[in-house]
Design goal:
The chain is an alpha+beta fold and 130 residues long. The protein has a single domain, classed as Ubiquitin-like (UB roll) (Roll). It is 25% helix and 35% strand. It contains two helices and twelve strands. A hairpin with a 2-residue loop joins strand 6 and strand 7. Helix 1 runs antiparallel to helix 2. The longest helix is centred in the first third of the chain and has 19 residues.
Length: 130
């Protein structure tokens, strides 16, 4: 089992609390990184169903809040549309992924997880998904 810590960064220099993800192997793709992150965020939200979703992708019918996205009415979120939106945003350069200060270029790019691997997600525009 390999553990990877990721953070969100903004163009204003804000850095979020770290998110820890677990993978079965130490070799993953950017697509698998995005999938695990989105899946874990949605799973955590659905388990607690609070008013605020803290994640990479803004759910539809939600408004931006200080600490995430406020849903008008707590509901179950499907991770798959969120994942598709995140992949589309990556391919459109609306979100950048920095791996050890190097920009990931494609969804199929390989990442080797080491204890020193640092990953940051840099959102360039608001992302809205399912």
């Amino acid at each position: 089992m390999s553990t990877l810590t990721v953070r969100d960064e903004s163009t204003t220099g804000d850095i979020s609390e770290p998110i820890t993800l677990e993978f079965l192997t130490d070799h993953i793709t950017v697509r698998e990184l995005i999938r695990e992150r989105v899946y874990q965020e949605v799973k955590d939200y659905n388990a607690n169903r609070g008013d605020v979703f803290k994640g990479l992708i803004q759910p539809s019918e939600a408004e931006k809040a200080i600490n995430g996205f406020k849903l008008k009415k707590p509901r179950h979120i499907d991770w798959q549309p969120q994942f598709k939106t995140a992949c589309d945003a990556f391919e459109a350069n609306e979100v950048l992924i920095l791996i050890d200060d190097r920009q990931a270029e494609s969804l199929d790019e390989q990442i080797t997880i080491t204890p020193r691997t640092e990953v940051s997600f840099l959102k360039l525009v608001p992302l809205v998904g399912g």
